Amino acid sequence: MQAEPLNPAHIAHLQHLFRRHSPLIHCMTNDVVQTFTANVLLAIGASPAMVIDPQEASPVCRHRRCAAD
């Protein structure tokens, strides 16, 4: 099975959809990279949730826009 080449028009369409829906991305990272990770996600149109308490993570993950597993 070969990978298909990237199609710039398809990538642009996916980026448009991503920004339009602004998914909530649940992140559990260490303190060193937390700001960097949040800024990258904001730059691509996501809504980062930097939740570090496992007790708070469950309600965040149940949010309808959350993209966490």
Automatic annotation (TrEMBL):
In its UniProt entry, the species of origin is given as Raoultella terrigena (Klebsiella terrigena)
Sorted alphabetically, the Gene Ontology BP terms of this entry are: thiamine biosynthetic process; thiamine diphosphate biosynthetic process
Q: Name one GO molecular function term.
A: hydroxyethylthiazole kinase activity
EC number assigned by the record:
2.7.1.50
Can you state which reaction this protein catalyses?
Answer: 5-(2-hydroxyethyl)-4-methylthiazole + ATP = 4-methyl-5-(2-phosphooxyethyl)-thiazole + ADP + H(+)
Give the InterPro entries listed for this entry: Hyethyz_kinase (IPR000417), Ribokinase-like (IPR029056)
Pathway(s) served: Cofactor biosynthesis; thiamine diphosphate biosynthesis; 4-methyl-5-(2-phosphoethyl)-thiazole from 5-(2-hydroxyethyl)-4-methylthiazole: step 1/1
Alphabetized UniProt keyword annotations: ATP-binding, Kinase, Magnesium, Metal-binding, Nucleotide-binding, Thiamine biosynthesis, Transferase
Per its UniProt record, the required cofactor names are: Mg(2+)
Q: What is this protein called?
A: hydroxyethylthiazole kinase
